[in-house]
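Sharing in case it's useful to others searching the archive later.

Someone asked me privately for the predicted structure of Pyridoxal-dependent decarboxylase, so I'm posting the question and my answer publicly. Question first, with the sequence:
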Amino acid sequence: MTPNHTRTPKHTWTPKHTWDIDDFVQAAEATVEGLAAYVRESQDGEVPVIRRTPPGELAGRLGLARWIREGGMTPETYREWLGAYLAEGTRLHHPAYLAHQTAAPDFPSALADFVHGAINNPMAVYEMGAAAATAEFEVLHWMLAKVGFPEGGGVLTHGGSLANLTAMLAARAAAAPDAWTEGVPGDLAILAPPSAHYSITRAAAILGLGERAVVPLDVDDLGRIDVARLPEGLDRARRAGRRPMALVAAACATGTGLYDALRPIGEFCAEHGLWYHVDGAHGASALLSEEHRHLLDGIDLADSVIWDAHKMLRTASLAAAVLVRREGDLDAAFKQEASYLFYGDQGFDLIGRTVECSKAALGTKVFLNLAWRGERGLGEHVAARYATAHRFWELARERPGFHCPYEPESNIVCFRYGDGDQAEIRETLLEEGSFHLTSAEIGGVRHLRVTVIAPATDDKTLEALLDRVAALT
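And my answer, the predicted structure tokens:
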């Protein structure tokens, strides 16, 4: 007979720093409620679009030093803190947000960020995030098809600057295959218009070419590449002892929103054996609009293209695609050894194509926006923002004192009011919190600059901006 032993209950030990699930649920509920109120009042335009509280004052208001030093936040105190934090943010959903090329994100991409924040699957190595990596593969296949690279390859990076750098690495690998191991030849050059995004010059410096390796192309009065004078630019580089490794065109230019003539530029590059790079960070999304995709005619001639989802695809920052016509060109950009990462079958790993090792689930953010809105819905968003910008141009040129140097091709419009200091007008608007816009130089002259990117921006907003600008001078 088995003795009847009295059993002592086992002690259940809980690791000290595991999640408190109840706290998480309460804090998540507070987050959703706080963000819902924030977006609602932002879209309604009920609050200032921007606040400019000095950092010292803001740090005190948010209790940052105390929280860092003491900790102890609870769901209740978090709710209060979040409200103060959101009140000080720049409201991209606001109809008067007309500034930088950063999306008023749609909620599906925000959900993706929330999910990634909890599960933390850095998916550049497939085994660290198979679902996220697979979502990125499918998003890239979709983007490659839209650009016209059926045999191409790609990767998503944390922003357009990294995307341009990655594309320039691929161009360098094509021009100087031994550069990764032997160093950069001193004669390489990049041909680009002066209006090219600053990340092109930055990439040249990072790659060891130096800023002077960026040879400026001739442009028209609005900064677009002068196709007829491309031979002069190429000759100028070669006479300086330079070997151009890439030519960069804009689709569209950051400052003006104007598109370069992609097809004739691509034909010139093909004729002269130049790597053709199209910076489509902002404007490649027009591929989704039947009305505007003609602006990108010839993009399929490129060797590399970048396309930012966090601009016109309503995706939360950051998610930028690097797309190449020949998949092997991207694989050649990096040549790395790391026994703890690079081993076995690398067929599903993206780490060999990016600067980043720990890479967020960027493709999931784009995928969920597509899954909710569809390709057609995102195309309608692009077309509507372009149309609203064109409406602003129409309204502005009808008013005395306003001058617009060009008819907009995208959702970016530059304008001046009178002959006064345009920067001073912008500063007043920012101090008021009434409108958030930027400025840019065209032909050496400072202009105010509007980027229509929030779905809430309408004719009422545009008229109010024109009224306010006119009243300030």
